[in-house]
Design goal:
Surface antigen domain protein; 4-stranded antiparallel β-sheet; signal; alpha+beta
Amino acid sequence: MNQTMLAGVGIVAALGLAATASLTVFSHGPQFAQVVAAVPITETITTPRKICSTVVANPWQPPAEGDPAARQRCKIVYDKTRQQIGYNVTYRIANQQGKIRMDRNPGSRIPLNKEGQLVLERQ
């Protein structure tokens, strides 16, 4: 009877360990946040530029070297360019949705740490 009892205790202990291990493996939350949208953020950069031309007092006569009748006129023009500075990202973890600003496009998902928080550093 002792051997039967020891075998029973061993089986119960083994089942307990297996149950604990399966809870540890399967009880973790999601490992990734699903990206719902990533909208580029842009800003307009305005850069001044100087444009100069020679203006002649008498348009019928070409200006001579050092002629005071020929003057240089300059004006400032502004070139505008659009620069991408980041992304407004909407993400979902389980049934909760959130928003964050990122410096890069995260793709279709964002990794989560063990506490379920977004991992934003590049790896």
